[in-house]
Amino acid sequence: MARDLTKEKVVATAAELANKLGDIQQLKLKDLAARLKIKVPSLYNHVKGLDGLVHALRVHALRILEEELRNVMAGKTGRDALMSAADSYRAFAHQNPGIYPLIIQAKGIDAETEKVSRDILTLFLLILGSFGLEGDEALHTVRGLRSLLHGFVSLELAGGFALGLELTDSFERLLSTFIDGIEP
Predict the structure, then answer these.
(1) Could you tell me the pTM of the whole model?
(2) 151-161 mean pLDDT
């Protein structure tokens, strides 16, 4: 395995392990090395320790999200685009519970993370442009949407909704109310 080991394989395996654990804090280099059938020092050929791995995982997670958003939004505008993007965000969080928290952290932002984050922001600004929102107004709206999405998903992942109501219905109602507030 070590001969064909690449940084991409290390990061993808680390993401898989973190998602299986459900918490990035539980990810240990020794466990990753064992999964890759290598010794821990060999990981340093691909990532700069745990901090370097977490950075690479953050970029990896953002790229996955950006690609998924781009795919679901293709050819859509307005309400349809925003609902699709929100559903994709929620699905991403559920499919990636271990690395999801990395996409919301602003700490340790570098040029690579900044670029992918800006690409995601641009996608949302394009959607909001179809509502006639631009400039600061669009940025304030993105902040509100991000807060709404993260709040709902975080509560959902933590088991914070104990009532017997269908969560997808609640999510769609919340989004509809938000969209009603920004539609011209």
Answers:
(1) 0.92
(2) 94
